[in-house]
Amino acid sequence: MELFWLAVSTIAIGVFGCVAWFWGSNMVLDAVYPPRGPRAGDNIRKASMIRPWLFLGPAILFLGLYLVYPVFDSLWRSLHNSDGSRFVGPGNYIWALGDGKFRESMLNNMLWLLVVPALATLFGLIAAQLTDRLKWGNIGKSLIFMPMAISFVGAGVIWRFIYEYREAGETQIGLLNWIVTRLGGDPQIWLTLIPWNNFFLMIVLVWIQTGFAMVILSAALRGIPEETIEAAILDGASPLQVFFRIKVPQIMGTIAVVWTTITIVVLKVFDIVFVMTNGQWGTQVLANLMYDWMFRGTPDYGRGSAIAMVLMILVTPIMIWNIRNARKEGR
Amino acid sequence: MADLKLTNVAKSYGDVDVLRNIDLDIASGEFIVFVGPSGCGKSTLLRMIAGLERITGGTLDIGGQRMNDIPPSQRGIAMVFQSYALYPHMTVRDNMAFALKIAGQSKEQIREATDRAGKMLQLTPYLDRLPKALSGGQRQRVAIGRAIVRDPQVYLFDEPLSNLDAALRVATRIEIAQLKASMPDRTMIYVTHDQTEAMTLADRIVVLAGGGIAQVGAPLELYERPMTEFVAQFIGSPAMNLLPGRVSATGDLTTVTLDGGGVAHVAIPTRAGDEGIRVNVGIRPEDMRETEGEALFEGKVDLTEALGEVTLLYFGTQGQQVPVIAKLPGIHPGLSGRSVRLTADPGAMHLFHEGRSLLYRDGVALPPYAPRAAAAPDHAGGAFSQA
């Protein structure tokens, strides 16, 4: 109960604190530079130079505290030993290069990077095109979009049940093994099947991200001028040719944004692996490896931070490209 | 052969009839223009010919073949859209080549066809550009080029000049006229709401109104012998004046006593027994002239618009009734506020009873139509097709 009131009061303080800040600070500003009297014009000009900073201020402060500062702190830690007491230079990075588990994580991350964005975008595109032409398309869309509302941990738990294993002869409670045994096969411990278990994990993320891709691409498809499609039909193009030669090229920018956005999600993938295999049986990924070194057993802040830095360096260029692309689309 | 035959064509969306009973014969090589007010279904009719809209009743034949269920690409037609509808991700050349590529033509054939179209439309320097790097007029030419390379039997134009500015519109209109002249055996169907385009381009104009055809005829025929008040007012700008009155003497020359107090002598025959029927006398603003003698109409000039070559006089703009407009050649300063007496030649006036012209009383025009001025150009397909 105590915890409940703590949560409620935290929310109340947060929300009313925001209101109080924006309302109060603007009132103070208007009191200092009143928008009336003989110097009204000058005052309004000065006030409108300060006002944006009142709105931006809290965001800048907290983003700085929780995002920018940790980056530098991680960098500092990655250059020190396990408890931060001794400077080791690039030692942690050199260790990572030689570490088998790190190499496995890098390889798996690359695999995720190739498979998940491609499949999610492809399925999203197909779903967007097909649901657009159906009467019950909107219901279909809602169903495909629904996994987006499930947390990664939740999705991991759901899919672990799908892959659940019981000894042959027992009642199979996992969907996949139930189907396999019904078809006369032997039940498998799916999540330990190297290297397929990696793909079993990837399917979970594809399942979640297809909805996202579909929604964005569906909007883009609707933005294509109808006349260009009619002109293509008059030019003799078949439905498939219209789709691949007229529609897809026109939404290439959006496809790129969707692809890179999913790529960033994929690089950071942690929850699904953590819940389903915890990186065993050759399924380790960078984010989970970082968590292992950072918080499990005897923590090694140096190595954990070094892995975090590698992850950030991988994400940053895609992020920049993605933002640029999104801006270009917006124009 | 590219003659079109529309028989009892209809279009309905559910219970809503958009078009019905459309009967139209279009000869091979004709330039036909569909005009009509917004929402009259002229674009829908064009899209039905193209195959982009399903025909819900009647039949469409092109070159003697029933086309109702033939896919658009196999109808031997090409269409130019109002918004150009260029493929934004393809260069000018690829835009024009797309249909040929789909048809599986060889690289040399495609190159030759696009080169020829580019030269014809002065697009050669732009062949490798994307549409977004072109001006509106150039884009429209690419759209026309895309139609030309396919060498269709029938060209369909859906308000192709609406997105261009006034000067470019005139220039492109002339280009389209020249294009037609260079391909005398190709049929063109052109939709517009601009009557200047209709009058200058068409061999025959089809006026659509209220879901049906109001009149079909050569441009000057529609101008000089409109079948209904609607056509009379739709063709010509400013619109024809309609003055209500009562027939007071019949014969070859009909005398009408106008409600406004004037008297009109109209060179349209009426029969004995027509005395007393309500009619509207139609006079085009440009046929009105000042007179000192017997007048059709006398009134105070409320407003003048001096355009240089002509001066427009507006009467009765304050009242509830439709204003009367006269168009006098030349410049007339100081007319505003003055009272003016106006008349017109008997041969230039029209007579409408219950909305229909008395010229077409029994469904046939009497006497047969011949252009008024000797210098008027010859019009192919000028005969009446609307019985």
UniProtKB/TrEMBL annotation, chain A:
Transmembrane segments: 6-32, 53-72, 110-131, 143-162, 199-221, 255-281, 301-323
Membrane topology term: Multi-pass membrane protein
The keyword Transmembrane helix belongs to this UniProt entry's keyword annotation: yes
Residues in ABC transmembrane type-1 domain copies: 106-322
Keywords of this entry: Cell membrane, Membrane, Transmembrane, Transmembrane helix, Transport
Signal peptide range: none
CDD domains cross-referenced by the UniProt entry: TM_PBP2
Keyword Transport: yes
Intracellular or extracellular location(s): Cell membrane
Coarse class of the protein's main subcellular location: membrane
PANTHER family xrefs: ABC TRANSPORTER PERMEASE PROTEIN (PTHR30193), OSMOPROTECTIVE COMPOUNDS UPTAKE PERMEASE PROTEIN GGTC (PTHR30193:SF18)
Family the entry assigns: Belongs to the binding-protein-dependent transport system permease family.
Protein name: Sugar ABC transporter permease
UniProtKB/TrEMBL annotation, chain B:
SMART domains per the UniProt record, alphabetical: AAA
CDD domains documented for this protein: ABC_MalK_N (cd03301)
Residue intervals of the ABC transporter domain: 4-235
Keywords: ATP-binding, Cell inner membrane, Cell membrane, Membrane, Nucleotide-binding
Cross-referenced InterPro entries: AAA+_ATPase, ABC_transporter-like_ATP-bd, ABC_transporter-like_CS, ABC_transpr_MalK-like, ABC_transpr_MalK/UgpC-like, OB_MalK-like
Any one Pfam family match given in the protein's UniProt record, by short name: ABC_tran
GO molecular function, one term: ATP binding
Name used for this protein in its record: Sn-glycerol-3-phosphate ABC transporter ATP-binding protein UgpC
Record gene name: ugpC
